[in-house]
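Standup notes
- DV: blocked on the single-chain target, sequence here:
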Amino acid sequence: MYVLLIAMLLHAIPSGIASQTYDSGTAEEQAETVPSETVEQTPALEKQARAKSGEPPPPPPTFQQRHQRELLALLALLFLWLFTRVWVTPESEQPKRKKRHSPVNAEELARVTYSIVQSEDGEGYRGLYLNGAEAVRAMGEAPATSYIEGRSAEIFEAAFDQLFERVPPGARFEQGSLTEKDVVELWVIATDGRRHKIPIGTIVHVGAIMRLAAPVTGIEANPAIELLPE
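- DV (later): unblocked, structure below
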């Protein structure tokens, strides 16, 4: 559609506007070649002369000739608008990175994890883990390098799927808990009234922030289920 509009505008502008040819010679020479009668003629005399000679009057200027400047300005605006639409991405359309959660205790980490599971936010779950800079700060450069190299997108995806399956549908958040082995647990109450203590992962402190270091796998990942006291 844009190409069609530009082609229509270009067709509407007379071809002679971009380039005009002039006779060679100086201004004095051109003035000498013009008869003095022609120079002294007024528009009224020219009209009378045409009427006497039977020559038809010149056609009135066309729409394109009367509005050459407006058409050029419109064409320039169209090019500018097309440029901003194609090559400039508005701020509202630019992808925004999600802000990482920064829990400072087991309660906050468990609550955030519960929210992430409910919204099925795999990217948010990955953001709870140590990144490269935090791993270096918490472990040292060499251990951090081995730690980062041992992780992959598949590992995070599998860990999140397992955690999602361990949270009963419709369960409500109760609290978070930190075990003696530095494992954060998510406690939820299922619809049948039983408490599920779901291991999330081992944690590492980076300053005041609590980050996940590794998910809990194997038998230890099975939640402890207990009946609530009546």
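- Follow-up: The chain has two domains: 1-11+63-96, 106-227.
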